[in-house]
Write a structure and sequence with these properties.
heterodimer, A: 247 residues, mainly alpha, 10 helices, globular, B: 307 residues, alpha/beta, Rossmann fold, Alpha-Beta Plaits, 2 domains, 6-stranded mixed β-sheet, 4-stranded antiparallel β-sheet, 37% helix, 26% strand, binds adenosine-5'-triphosphate, binds magnesium ion
């Protein structure tokens, strides 16, 4: 398993889309506070900056890794390189899990660049003016990582089924953009959907921002749902991959 | 019987509307170079995909290094190097990076094997050039290098010579021969062109419409394809003596029906006929027989189609 992980990490490091997206996010993380501090009338509050970012970071969690899913996962099939991987003498389960782990790692990196990077830049620029509560900050970062991984697990299942970069990216973005709206509509008609939606990572990914105001049972729900989602979609992915005929 | 690296037992693969392989019993001896020949769509790639575990058989089994159990088969695949159909490389990586990704994947120790393998296929001077900017022949070499990484005991090469220039074909052929003779690597190489494999393979398997129609050694194939004069005269014994004495050769056979097969003087038919006529023999039949590999192959397939 170690060699598979090493190989996947090597490929992630060399992946053009991964490099470019990381760079773009880092630029935004540096420039946004810089512009705010240059053009803002009063000194920036790091806490406010942090709260603004984590409100918006939901899009980064859901959309940016869709691109990586296309280039890093689906492309292995369209390029034919999956043939070498699948015939390399490693079991399909291990191959899938290694790739899932490294892909999730990539998605996690994307997910924390803005909250950590922007907050950091803001802190330096404002000389640590009105810093966010450290415990809250740490909690948010941990939950951001959890949800990024859960979304990544869902994305990887679809990428494995679609096996074409363009199709994967297009359909994933569509799914992740429309899911909330579709579920909202269905929930208004059938209560079962409301129930499902309320326990889904899609809904809960909006909720963890309020973690400091929640009871511990709610916090537990926030933590357990992404973990279960990660595992279930991981298993579904393994099943799909094991049956797959690789061209 | 010699050890077999690969054996298939009644191996079949059926797609919805298509039998891609039908009860194939193929065996590849250790140390041989097995030329796997069939037209487009015959089932060559399907077989290699079943052997490498990219697809599952509908029925029948694959035996690799004596292993048939699924788990052990996966382990056994660590000992093979395979390229299956079109170039499978990472376009945004250099040749060395492509190899490094596969070295890690296969768990081959030591980075130095990357440069060594690149040198082996003649790609050591491609430097920072990305694989997407390689020519088709360079891509083929890179794929071959990937397959060669980690000194596999068994190479499975599906149409590896596509896109190589004549020099490249010779070069790669020599490389494969060397690997075979020096390191004892067993090779399965598929192609739809028999002549492409002729100077390389020691064993042949002919596949047509999913059926393995014939397996033979190079020797047997050469026998079938040998050119000779088919000579029938009124006195076979006398003719044999004349050939031995006047034409001074032993390179002929007398068939049970009295026909003589002469393998010499193929370019001098008059010399042969004159010698026989001068000895007072009456020539009843005199014709040039035999075939080249390609026409043998065509006939083999034709026989299947019409019979
Ligand atoms: N996934 C699939 N679904 C349906 N039919 C398939 C599939 N893969 C292969 N086939 C069919 O199986 C047959 C054998 O195909 P295969 O690729 O093994 O041929 P081949 O001998 O490698 O041909 P070529 O020389 O063109 O590479 C073909 O008729 C092909 O259409
Ligand atoms: Mg083929």
């Amino acid at each position: 398993m170690g060699n598979l992980l090493k190989s996947e990490l090597f490929k992630l490091k060399k992946d053009t889309s991964f490099k470019k997206l990381t760079l773009a996010l880092m630029l935004i993380a540096a420039l946004f506070p810089l512009i705010a501090s240059i053009y803002g009338t009063e000194q920036i509050s790091v806490n406010e900056l942090f709260l603004t970012i984590i409100g918006k970071n939901n899009y980064v969690l859901k959309l940016i890794p869709c691109l990586l899913a296309g280039y890093f996962i689906a492309s292995e099939y369209s390029l034919g390189t999956m043939k070498s991987i699948a015939s390399s003498g490693n079991s399909r389960i291990r191959i899938y899990i290694s790739k899932l782990m490294v892909f999730s790692f990539g998605a996690i990196i994307f997910s924390v660049i803005l909250p950590i990077g922007m907050t950091g830049t803001g802190a330096i620029l404002s000389q640590f003016n009105d810093m966010p509560d450290l415990k809250y900050f740490a909690q948010i970062i941990i939950f951001t990582m959890l949800y990024a991984a859960a979304f990544a697990s869902i994305m990887m299942l679809f990428a494995t089924m679609f096996t074409d970069s363009g199709k994967t990216i297009g359909l994933l973005i569509l799914i992740f953009l429309l899911f909330d709206g579709v579920m909202f509509m269905l929930a208004s008609k059938i209560t079962l959907f409301e129930y499902i939606y309320n326990y889904s990572v899609f809904k809960l990914s909006y909720d963890f921002i309020n973690i400091n105001a929640l009871e511990s049972i709610e916090v537990f729900k926030l933590a357990i749902v992404p973990i279960v989602t990660y595992v279930i979609f991981g298993l579904l992915g393994v099943l799909a991959f094991q049956k797959k005929e690789i061209k | 019987m010699k050890d077999c690296v690969l054996k298939t037992n009644q191996l079949s693969k059926q797609y919805k509307h298509q039998v891609a392989l039908n009860k194939v019993n193929l065996s590849i001896e250790k140390g041989s170079i097995y030329g796997f020949i069939g037209q487009n769509g015959a089932g060559k790639s399907t077989l290699t995909r079943l052997v490498t575990g990219l697809a599952m058989p509908t029925s029948g089994t694959v035996e690799l290094f004596g292993e048939t159990d699924e788990r052990r088969l996966i382990q056994a695949r660590k000992r093979i190097g395979a390229t299956i159909e079109q170039p499978a490389i990472y376009p945004h990586m250099t040749a060395a990076e492509n190899l490094e990704a596969h070295r890690l994947l296969k768990g081959v120790p030591g980075k130095e094997c990357v440069q060594k393998t690149l040198a082996l296929v003649g790609l050591h001077d491609t430097g920072k050039k990305k694989a997407k900017n390689f020519s088709l022949g360079m891509k083929q070499r890179l794929i071959l290098a990937i397959a060669l990484l980690g000194d596999p005991e068994f190479l499975i090469l599906d149409e590896p010579i596509n896109g190589l220039d004549p020099m490249g074909v010779v070069e790669i052929r020599e490389l494969l021969k060397k690997l075979n003779s020096e390191k004892g690597v067993t090779i399965l190489i598929s192609s739809h062109i028999l002549s492409e494999l002729h100077l390389l393979a020691t064993h042949y398997g002919f596949i047509h419409k999913g059926e393995l129609i014939e397996q033979m050694t190079l020797h047997q194939l050469e026998d079938k394809c040998q050119q000779y004069f088919h000579i029938k005269v009124d006195n076979t014994e006398k003719a044999a003596t004349i050939i031995e004495t006047v034409l001074s050769t032993n390179d002929f056979e007398v068939m049970p029906d009295g026909v003589i097969r002469l393998y010499k003087y193929l370019d001098q038919p008059t010399k042969v006929s004159t010698a026989l006529v001068n000895a007072g023999l009456i020539i009843e039949q005199f014709k040039s027989m035999g075939q080249d590999l390609e026409s043998y192959f065509t006939k083999l397939i034709g026989g299947i189609q019409h019979g």
